[in-house]
Write a structure and sequence with these properties.
The protein is α+β, with helices and mostly antiparallel strands. 24% of the residues lie in helices and 48% in strands. The protein contains 1 helix and 10 strands.
């Protein structure tokens, strides 16, 4: 895919639910009509905490807004001498058939008021990236076709072998 917004840093404000806590990315351009966008969000400093983001993709020429919500949480520790972790510090959003033009993204963060928000959230926007499900689905379809073709070839070969045996048995019986 084509990177439209390379690892842009977005710093959440210090406390949640304050007026005007929105954070915006730098504007970026989607050069071609009808492309998909993948928005990858990473909070590398998220530790034993959660972060919610209301996300808006804003098409500046028309004012059209696509809204989404992302929640990330990451917890880790040691229990009985074993390390453990759960959750993820990253999330992906997908937008399909996006019109070409200039865009900006708005983030409205929410987090536990008793804990500080992660210092930085990294946002990367790429275009023309096939969703993982499409790639996996295509792979599974190709494997299925291969296995089905192999089954048919073997079934035909077994049927031909059976026909040959029957013909030999009929010839020997005469």
């Amino acid at each position: 895919g084509t990177t439209l917004l390379p690892d842009g840093g977005v710093t959440p404000p210090g406390t949640p639910a304050e007026p005007d806590t929105s954070v915006f990315t730098d504007p970026f351009e989607v050069p071609v009509e009808g492309r998909n966008l993948r928005v990858s969000i990473l909070s590398p400093q998220l530790q034993d905490n959660w972060l919610g983001l209301d996300v808006a993709l804003v098409h500046e020429p028309t004012g059209t807004v696509w809204e989404d919500t992302v929640e990330m949480s990451y917890y880790s520790g040691v229990e009985d001498g074993e390390s453990w972790s759960e959750g993820s510090r990253s999330a992906d959003l997908w937008y399909s058939r996006i019109p070409g033009g200039r865009y900006v993204m708005r983030f409205d963060p929410s987090f536990d008021p008793a804990r500080p928000a992660p210092a930085t959230v990294t946002v990367r926007v790429t275009s023309d990236t096939p969703p993982t499900g499409y790639v996996l689905g295509t792979f599974l379809a190709l494997v299925s076709l291969y296995l089905f073709g192999t089954f048919i070839r073997r079934a035909r070969a077994a049927a031909a072998e059976q026909q040959a045996r029957l013909a030999r048995a009929r010839g020997a019986a005469r």
